[in-house]
TrEMBL record:
Keywords: DNA-binding. It comes from Streptomyces hintoniae. The keyword Membrane does not apply. The lineage of its organism: Bacteria, Bacillati, Actinomycetota, Actinomycetes, Kitasatosporales. It comes from the Bacteria. This is GAF domain-containing protein. Pfam families: GAF.
């Protein structure tokens, strides 16, 4: 094979190649080895699928239905480019008896459209909106593998890991947020063996790029003028402010003030703001007024008023985005927007409470959802690596050897006596350091 991303070389016999793949798949599922004719991208995907505990006779779980699905789709960024997908791929899918499918960054199908007969056939394998087709759940498949690898991929016949999917051929390409580069999901075309052609792979890739260009054009024009401020405070010690077409990195104290004023468009009195910001009751109002004077110079004229202190223009804060998505039940979308704890080093009392409330709300939603992909994303993030409740939920949803081993180690670590933990796992040695890097006192 000259191009590992293309399923069939020009002139190859699809039927003969499909038979070879079925034999190779049987060999792999029986003894764990992959015969050489299988493309390396497929062989590696098969191995990942097996390590994730996917069985060749499995079926897709449907995670979102009815209102939950509708709420999640309405909040998802790819909803804004569905007209582009339908215009460029919709007619092709319908005329060719194919399906147009769109998934999110976790491989969950959001839309499946196309020829009615083909849709009914696809329903038999739960290739339907709301179903989880992540590679870690359904093995090798174009939309799931495209988001896993973050690149366009084509999957032909028995290259699919799940047997009931092997009559199908699909090609998918990831779609990225044009501003951040983050994977939003993937666009997929699914149908018969006729799609095993280099043109179908290039086609979906071109559609994905068109969607990204359209998303870039949809940036609200008011964000480049004085009518809106955009505040990014999650996962950052110093918030980033987009104002009047310029980006400003704020000091920690100014970050705290703007987060609080964004949540209180009606304004806060000096006393309210002082209680929200300072643990030390001895801090004088003069200190706060000096901070606000400096912030006013940073923002520019006319954006910060007093009596009460308030912003004169609307603020779109990433904290509010996560909260809205949680309230609407769009858990996956909320997790995607959560890039870390709110101002993680801040000790301002109101910020600490908001930070904890937001994290607790997300954790509760994740544990309740029992979605192994979402739980795994949280558990492997810096803020979730020691989250015992999430690791327990992940072990229940995806009891792989690696997850069980991490849970066992975490339970042992968190339930061990204090001197054992402080000694770095060696009881009685006194070896260990606190969070500042200073040695712990000797344990005797």
């Amino acid at each position: 094979m000259t191009d590992q991303w293309v399923a069939l070389e020009p002139g190859a016999d699809p039927a003969a190649h499909a038979r070879m793949l079925r034999r190779a798949h049987e060999t792999f599922t029986a003894v764990g080895t992959v015969p050489r004719p299988v493309r390396s991208v497929v062989a590696e995907s098969w191995r990942r699928s097996a390590r994730a505990g996917v069985g060749p006779d499995g079926t897709a779980d449907v995670d979102l239905v009815d209102g939950d699905l509708g709420a999640y789709r309405a909040e998802h960024p790819l909803a804004r480019v569905m007209p582009v997908f339908r215009e460029l791929l919709g007619t092709f899918a319908a005329d060719g008896e194919h399906l147009l499918a769109v998934c999110d960054a976790h491989g969950r199908l959001l839309w499946v459209e196309g020829h009615p007969t083909t849709r009914r056939q696809a329903q038999r394998m739960n290739f339907v909106p709301g179903a989880r087709w992540a590679e870690s759940a359904m093995g090798t498949n174009a939309p799931g593998t495209a988001v896993a690898l973050n690149r366009p991929v084509q999957v032909f016949a028995a290259e699919h890991f799940i047997r009931r999917v092997q009559p199908w051929t699909c090609a998918a390409a990831p779609v990225h947020d044009p501003r951040t580069g983050r994977v939003l999901g993937a666009i997929d075309i699914t149908g018969g063996n006729g799609l095993a052609h280099p043109h179908s792979l290039g086609f979906v890739q071109a559609v994905a790029r068109a969607a990204e260009s359209h998303l870039a054009l949809l940036t609200p024009p008011e964000r480049s003028c004085q009518s809106t401020l955009e505040l990014t405070a999650l996962g950052r010690d110093e918030a980033l402010l987009l104002a009047v077409g310029r980006k400003v990195r704020l000091s920690r104290r100014h970050s705290e003030i703007l987060v609080l004023l964004a949540r209180h468009p009606e304004g806060l009195t000096g006393d309210e703001l002082q209680c929200a910001l300072y643990e030390d009751e001895s801090v004088t109002p003069v200190t706060l007024r000096a901070e606000l004077a400096r912030l006013r110079r940073v923002l520019g004229p006319g954006l910060l008023e007093s009596r009460p202190y308030r912003l004169t223009v609307p603020v779109e804060c990433d904290v509010a985005v996560v909260e809205r998505r949680l309230e609407s039940g769009a858990v996956t979308s909320a997790v995607a927007a959560y890039t870390g704890p709110l101002l993680p080093t801040s000790q301002a009392p109101a910020v600490v409470r908001l930070r904890q409330r937001l994290a607790d709300g997300l954790r509760t939603a994740l544990i309740t959802s029992r979605d192994p992909d979402l739980l795994a994303d949280w558990a492997h993030a810096p803020w979730g690596e020691d989250d015992l409740d999430v690791w327990r939920a992940l072990a229940a949803a995806r009891p792989t050897a690696a997850v069980r081993a991490r849970l066992t180690a975490l339970e042992s670590e968190l339930t061990a006596p204090a001197d054992w933990r402080r000694g770095g796992g060696r009881r009685g040695t006194g070896v260990g350091r606190d969070v500042t890097g200073a040695p712990w006192p000797e344990v005797t």
